Amino acid sequence: MHVHPALDQLFSCAGRTALVAGASSGIGLSMAEAIGRAGARVVLVARTAGLLQRNAEQLQKDGVEAGWIAADLSDRAQVRDLAERAVAEFGPVDILVNSAGLNLRPPMNELTADDYDRTMAVNVDAPFLLGQALGPAMAARGWGRIINVASQQSVSAFGNSGVYGVSKAAVTGLTRSQSEAWAPHGVCCNSLVPGFVRTPLTEPTFAIPGRAEALAARTHAGRNGERPDFAGVAVWLASDASAFVTGQAIFVDGGLSVA
Question: Which residues contact 67 (CB under 8 A, 6 or more apart)?
Fold first, then answer.
């Protein structure tokens, strides 16, 4: 049985260009893969050029038009340059995914001002600056999508959340502000809230004996998240299928947040 063309079009990202920050691994890479396979040209962004090149080449083998730009998202000048380069090299950006993240884990009373500044620079300042650089142009064209990756720690303190929790709470607030500004002009802005997912960022937590199993037991689904769990929601939020969904925090967590 074939998919009806109207449904196929509803979830298509064909003709769109997506910039995905944090696309060297983890959830960001999964979202980039899915959006690219849904038809978008994807621009992968992270610090490590070698990983970006490898990921882009793999996507190209799958028939996806993919490029990459290496940038340190903790550096405001590099973030601004990244936005300009992306538009100059790949054309107007229609879909912005902010998935890059930094999670420093010292106890709260040992956190320094430098820890705070570094975390906020990557987790909040970069999504803000990329939104400011690309969002108004999306609004002027009458269509756009901004997807910010938040965290369980946006709404709940656990696991030594520290400044990471502060930053991710700010991400959901930023998302609402972006939506208020640009949704009237066709730009849907949402945050995605993962559960506990094995990524390079969470490896220190997975390394704690029994921690992963305890978190899996707290979910309704009875397991922790995997990278493929974010493919479908990425395409939904990046396509016309989510045209009346904006300003929301979408939980993709197997029921962890409501258990």
Answer: 41, 42, 43, 44, 56, 89, 90
- Looking only at the bridges linking them, the beta strands covering 144-149 and 41-46 are unpaired
Query: What secondary structure letter does DSSP report for 22?
Result: T
Which residue is listed with tokens 């420093």? 104
Distance, CA of 3 to CA of 118 (rounded, Å): 46
Does residue 174 contact residue 148 with C-beta atoms inside 8 Å? yes
Q: Tokens 């520290």 identify what position?
A: 162
pLDDT tens, residue by residue, 124-160: 999 999 999 999 999 999 999 999 999 999 999 877 8
**251 by DSSP, 3-state: which?**
strand
CB 118 within 8 A of CB 102: yes
Record the tokens describing residue 78, joined without a space: 């590099």
What size, in residues, is the chain? 259
Which amino acids are annotated catalytic?
164
Place of tokens 């063309």: 5
177 vs 139: CA distance, rounded Å: 14
CA 199 – CA 110 distance, rounded (Å) = 25
pLDDT in tens, 30-82: 999 999 999 999 999 999 999 999 999 999 999 999 999 999 999 999 999 99
